Amino acid sequence: MQIDLTGRTALVTGSSQGIGLAIATVLARAGARVALNGRRADALEAAAATVVDAAPGAEVLRVAGDLGTTEGAASVVEQLPQVDVLVNNLGVFGQLDPFEVDDETWERYFQVNVMSAVRMLRAHLPGMRERGWGRAITIASDSAVAIPAEMIHYGVTKTALLGVTRGFAKAVAGSGVTVNTVVAGPTHTPGVEDFVAEMVGTDGSWDERQRRFMVEHRPASLVQRLLEPEEIANAVLYLASDLASATTGGAVRADGGYVDAILP
To answer: How far is CA 99 from the centre of its chain?
Structure first.
């Protein structure tokens, strides 16, 4: 397949590291003008250097702002009012006893994981609809379907994103704009390395600890390993292209076979 995003502007939220940075990189390699987003300007500078190193000549914008707040989201839209490809990647996660997750934590997870996506979809889908083309992709998780007991607060927000995606896809039906979710499986990022350490300790090599984590805590995975960020990014790249014109309102799985279902 030949995917060419030349002339398209893509905004990837939460893209200073991990899956978001990988997504920004593959979009840039495909020719897109990529806007990185995060709260810290220094982190965005470092991320931009990574993207340019992997995609020489790429045009990379830095759009700082906290999308977990109404004011921060408004600032991001003001800095970048028009995009062709929107990737809602921003999210937080962490292990907590479900009986110790207080109201403040629930609210924080909802604002960052759900409302950040709602704010960006609400801001950018109308323009895409008017222009007759656009791609909106939101990163969900296997935890949206197989909610882990140690991360109920996280899983529920990812479940909500499946509904958000389906609803907004209906809102732009017939316009040439597609709205989809990528259901990502357990993925190797710096944050997940810390999470694995919390779950199985720090004894042994990374490969040994990763294997133990998958066997003990994510045994349903069919690939039996953590995914790499680029594997999620490749699914996003396809959905961002003209080739995916028939896919909308969907939950596309890049989960390593984790979710035990025939249909999404």
So the answer is: 27
Q: Which of 109, 154, 238, 258 is catalytic?
A: 154
Helix (H, G, I), strand (E, B) or coil at 218: coil
Write phi, then psi, for 137 (nearest 5 degrees). -130, 130
Q: List the alpha helices (DSSP H) in the chain.
A: 18-29, 41-54, 70-79, 103-109, 116-131, 152-171, 190-200, 206-217, 229-239
Select from 5, 61, 57 the least CA-distant residue to 38. 61
Which tens digits make up the pLDDT trace of 218-255?
Answer: 898 999 999 999 999 999 999 999 999 999 999 999 99
Rounded Cα distance between 255 and 26, Å, is: 19
Active site residue 154: yes
pLDDT tens, 171-226?
Answer: 999 999 999 999 999 999 888 888 899 899 999 999 999 999 999 998 989 999 99
The domain segmentation of the chain, as residue ranges, is: 9-185+228-253, 188-226
Pick the CATH number of 9-185+228-253 from 3.40.50.720, 2.60.40.60, 3.40.1030.10, 1.20.140.10: 3.40.50.720
Place of tokens 């790249």: 237
Dihedral angle over CA of 76, 77, 79, 81, nearest 10: 150
